[in-house]
Amino acid sequence: MMNQSTNQSQKPQIQTRRPISNYEYLNPSREDDDSIMDGFHYKSGRRYHFLDGVKYPLPCDTDETYRLKLNYSISRYCWKGNLFYSPLENELAKGGMRVLDVGCGPGGWLLDMAAQFPNSTFVGVDISSMIPKDQQPSNMGFLQCNIHNGLPFPDDTFDFVFMSHMFTSITESQWQDVVDDLVRVAKPGGWIELMEGDYMNATSGPVTREIQAQTTILLRSRGINMNIGPNVYKYFENIVELENEIFTGQTVTPLGNGTVGELAFKNYKSSHFAVRLHEYMGISKQELEEMFKISQKEMDEYNTVLNIHRFYAQKKICTEKSEDSW
Ligand SMILES: C[S@@+](CC[C@H](N)C(=O)[O-])C[C@H]1O[C@@H](n2cnc3c(N)ncnc32)[C@H](O)[C@@H]1O
Q1: Where is this region: Disordered (predicted)?
Q2: Does CATH number 3.30.70.20 belong to domain 18-316?
Q3: Which of 88, 102, 137, 209 has the most crowded Cβ, counting Cβ within 10 A?
């Protein structure tokens, strides 16, 4: 139960003073402390992508690589070590399977999969190169590419195509093209699995809700829909090459409670500083810190968890195209 008196005394002072305009946020210039070079934009000591069609708001630098590694470890713990749900365990163990991880980040999933299934081959693609060559086992490879230019593989290449936590990398208008491309590179009979969190639907207190609301507006200004996680399966629905059935799985990540919850909260909080939410809201870093202090207490009070969803589907063994050709 919520403690009313505590809540009164902690009544949040939420002030947004000088929100920087969308134009200013989306179109950084060389003025002030900005610099733009080689497809990157440097702001407040962080490095960001600055390329046409890439709306990803998170940085690409060493701190972010550590954050993504921590995020992967928390996620693996919450899924109780189940790295995937598609029914491919036996085939992967037998070997000879080709697997693609789209937006693989620092490669935590790929490295775990490559170790667990040494006779299958694993390939990661990402716009940033975060997996040192000498850490890649012989059954794993990496290609640096922008997925919005199309995946650099022929049709029908992979037995399993996996993509996780990519909702900040893909605008609402790009989602269908990306999912179509995942299906294109999957072999007939292969599986495609998506895993996304539900940022908005956690039970949360007023300050947390305000942080979420401001973040939603910030990302919407870049075309990103923060509510898309639980609905990404809809992009499977109109693809004729897929079997009709879409399978689902779900887990929760605690936020703020216990050892894992505290780590997950730390990670959640630092992602908001990484998108420079305070600048967008026109408040100081310290003021956003204060909001997060209250938010963390709220999370204990409200038992806040993040729901994480998996959706997986199979590509038809005989597509209409191949049936016609007979
Ligand atoms: C939130 S991370 C998720 C990483 C990993 N899939 C995971 O679940 O831990 C999003 C990843 O998408 C990558 N990314 C963003 N935009 C991209 C693009 N246009 N093409 C390829 N990768 C992109 C980022 O570099 C980052 O590694």
Answers
A1: 1-25
A2: no
A3: 102
